[in-house]
Design a protein that fits this description.
four-stranded mixed beta sheet; 219 residues; 4 strands; 2 domains; Glutaredoxin; Glutathione S-transferase Yfyf (Class Pi), Chain A, domain 2; 9 helices
Length: 219
């Protein structure tokens, strides 16, 4: 198989990070190709690469798979030994529900705390209006419930698609100084210490492109 995962900037593209982590976890042989977000080159190339006009998108021989969750589901089916989902039926159902909630929800978190790997080098405290505070509280509740059931170190015991979907949230929480109790702090450190996460973060921090966005920090 000839596989190319087209991604956005590693510094900013939370959606791209998710399938990239799952593909690395599964041991898939692929290359990633960055399309710098909001650039003229992106606008020129994306119509011929992605039916949705967005990244990530996986090209596999003559097949095109777009959407981060669709790519992860494909990898889970193609590499069953990687156990990308929990093996127990009830846990797998809960894991899919949690991923679906992350995939479609938390708009305040996305808008007010954009992923930016460079901010890990100098975290900043941000204001938390009600909508953002609710998103953060809900994520805390999900993590606490999953870790209490599984015993960790990942949300469902071993690394899964669920952890890949929350990996950008971990970067956000650490970048913007979100308070975490000891259990959740331990989970974040477990993810951040994964070699693949460290590779992504380091490469993101080394990128030169800068996107303009506003983050309201605490004075």
């Amino acid at each position: 198989m000839t596989a190319t995962l087209y991604i956005g900037n590693k510094n900013y593209s939370s959606w791209s990070l998710r399938p990239w982590l799952v593909m690395r976890h599964a041991g898939m042989d692929f290359r990633d190709e960055k399309l710098a977000l909001l650039s003229d080159a992106y606008r020129a190339r994306i119509p011929g690469i992605s039916p949705s006009g967005k990244v990530p998108v996986l090209h596999l021989d003559d097949q095109v798979i777009w959407d981060s969750l669709a790519i992860c589901e494909f990898i889970a089916e193609t590499y069953p030994d990687a156990q990308c989902w929990p093996t127990a039926r009830e846990a797998r159902a809960q894991a899919r529900a949690v991923v679906a909630e992350m995939h479609s929800g938390f708009p305040a978190l996305r808008n007010l705390m954009p992923m930016d790997c460079r901010k890990l080098l100098a975290p900043v405290k941000v204001q938390q209006p009600l909508e953002l505070a609710k998103d953060i509280q809900r994520i805390h509740a999900i993590w606490q419930e999953c870790l209490a059931k599984s015993g960790g170190p990942f949300l469902f015991g071993s690394f899964s698609i669920v952890d890949a979907f929350f990996a950008p949230v971990v970067i956000r929480f650490k970048s913007y100084g979100v308070h975490l109790d000891a259990t959740l702090e331990g989970y974040c450190q477990t993810l951040l210490q994964l070699p693949d996460m460290q590779t992504w973060i380091e490469e993101g921090q080394g990128e030169k492109e800068m996107l303009n966005y506003t983050v309201i920090t605490l004075s």
